[in-house]
Amino acid sequence: MQHVWRRTTPLTRTVTAVVLVALVAAGIWWFGIRDASAASAESVTRTVAASLTTMQKSVSGSGTLTPSVQEDVSFEVTGTVTAVPVAVGQTVTVGQPLATVDTLQLTADLLQAKATLADAQAKLADASGTAQVAAAQAQVDVAQSGVDTAQSAMDGATLTAPVAGLLTAVNVEVGDAVGSSAGPSASGETEAQFTIVGTDAWEVEVTVSDADVALIEVEDQAEVTLDGGGEPVFGTISAIGLLSTSDSGVAAYPVTVAVTGDQEGLHDGVAAEVELVYERRTDVLTVPSLAVATAADGTTTVQQTDSDGELVDVPVTTGETSGNVTEITEGLAEGDEVVLAVFTPGTGGTGRQNQGTFPEGGFQGGPPDGGDGPVFQQGGPANG
């Protein structure tokens, strides 16, 4: 057998060295790095404790914040305005003078009425016989009514505030004629001379459908969220209209909510979203809905970690669902830890509905609790 020897060139030696290095690197990965990667591929489990919370049912509506007190005030007597000691934007108290009219004619009317009464009383004193006395008494009664009317007009010469609040309109000034001789405005309506708006009582009127109005009643609590955000203010249902106000063909009824919470910073005309709470339960045991799963046979379970670190299914009985939490009526106690989510890095693991995978390239954002860790996407309850 003939042996053929080949001469080794520098290029051949270089290729050989590269092959040897690659083989060594592959061995290092197989026996070292690969084993470390396999160890790091263990599933990561996130747990949450069952806790007590408040669950409620409500009807939603929207409306506009308005003051509960909004009073239009005008003279009921005829005369010429002689003084207006207030201005728009001023806060007034009950009984504070707003304006006055001249009393010359009013005084004359009162004196004339009193004179008529005196004459009637004199005739009554001179009357004899049953018929004359009865007629004279009737004249006295009429004259007395005239005096009362004239005195009331004299008292009305000074217009006073019937309620406390902010003056938002002053539509009269010195020299204006007021009363029946002033007539209506150009629009055909009589314009109020003063408008007083209360700033310490507010309300919102919302419209509720025929189906929902049967669920609520007066004195039910309400949560009012004003346009622009911020913490909600609270109130109670003060009135429920009996007549439908809808023109869409579907019956709907007006519901008035009186704001009972913090009154500071409220303004007329602000849009508001209202939750009318018709049922509220406190100390309800709940877990995140993401932790609950329902099998094909209807069995509802959560997962817990046993003493060996293994995941076990625990049967539970569920109640109502509100938002992203589900009520647990049997099977758990307050503080029991349940598995919220199980993630396996770099794999597309399957199994319970609350399992997932770590996304390739790392995490986007932070965890739900604001700490360092992966983002867990919450979904609806597993039991529908």
Would you kindly provide a written description of the structure presented here, covering whatever features stand out?
With 384 residues, the chain is α+β, with helices and mostly antiparallel strands. The chain has 3 domains: 44-55 and 282-358, conserved putative lor/sdh protein from methanococcus maripaludis s2 fold, CATH 2.40.420.20; 59-68 and 199-281, Efflux pump adaptor protein, beta barrel domain (Elongation Factor Tu (Ef-tu), domain 3); 81-197, no CATH class. The chain contains 4 helices and 22 strands. The protein has helices at residues 10-40, 104-126, 130-155, 210-213; strands spanning 44-49, 51-67, 70-73, 79-83, 91-92, 97-101, 158-160, 165-170, 177-178, 194-197, 202-209, 221-226, 233-240, 252-259, 271-288, 293-294, 300-305, 311-315, 317-322, 325-330, 337-345, 355-358. A 6-stranded antiparallel barrel has the order 2-11-14-13-12-15. β19 and β20 form a beta hairpin. α2 packs antiparallel against α3 (130-155). The longest helix is centred in the first third of the chain and has 31 residues, at 10-40. It is elongated and about 115 Å long. The model is unreliable at 1-12, 36-41 and 353-384 (pLDDT under 50).
